[in-house]
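Hi everyone,

Forwarding the result from last night's run.
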Amino acid sequence: MVNMTASRQQLIRLLADGEFHSGEALGATLGVSRMAVSKQIKVLETIGLDVFKVTGKGYKLSAPLQLLDAELITAGSGVTVESHQVLGSTNQHLLDKAALLHKGHSCFAEYQTAGRGRRGKKWESPYGAHLYTSTYWSLDAGIQAASGLSLVIGIAVARTLTDLGIANTQLKWPNDVYVDGKKIAGVLVEIIATAGGECHLVIGLGLNVNMPLQAGLEIDQAWTDINQQLPHAIDRNALASRYLTHLIKVLTDFESFGFGHFVEEWNCCDAFRDSPVVLTIGNNKKYGIAKGIDHSGALLLEMDGVISPYVGGEVSLRHAET
């Protein structure tokens, strides 16, 4: 695991403008030798930064790096935001202090050393490339009121992408967002239920913005990012603000109206609707036709002419081989 020292974080800020900086100038600013700068550059490359070195010019990033600004995101969304250069996991960061937080409190990280997805999978988190964010929420009605929540978060992401002009945004049960059949985002909702009945939630999102080449090669499924979908670069702070605005709206509506309020919208975006699929539950596989979701958020699967509901958890849904 890379130790993101203060010196390395300062080096990233110096290179963020996308211009050339000589090793000598960088060393003078950091108070280290040119050789030490070279070693630090190699470390930065291991966390997903693409650094060019040109003799006589020095070092530069392949493209300018826009760092996240908590004040800008708060101003744009009205949500209390904290932003970090590096965290183990944004979800874990909020889980560790959930009892102290107010609804909507969100955190972002430029880099996660232990980012995670559903079913214990690692979430690739190259530095400054995407949005890695988590938001705290609570439900007074308890854990039973959280049914379908991950599906609602997908709707917030889909609305955000639609606002940007990205067409054909799709939702994959129970917690992924696709564009044209390729994954662009994943949601991880983690729950702490208390004895008194209150339910604490941490809602994590990984949204692909500008995937570095090497990181993309390490992903074992079809993926896309925002930069591939738009003709211009996206402002990550504006993107973060837009997402949080939609997120708070859907969470508030979810509390007021329940999941049934969102079923029609979710089904309209269903990536697998009326397609042959395989549903994996533990070691068991069920083959059928996906028929959308019901008012509890359960997947509707048609097998031999009979439609049955299946809830989330440790499950996996994929297109069936034809």
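The chain has a mean pLDDT of 90.

Cheers,
N.
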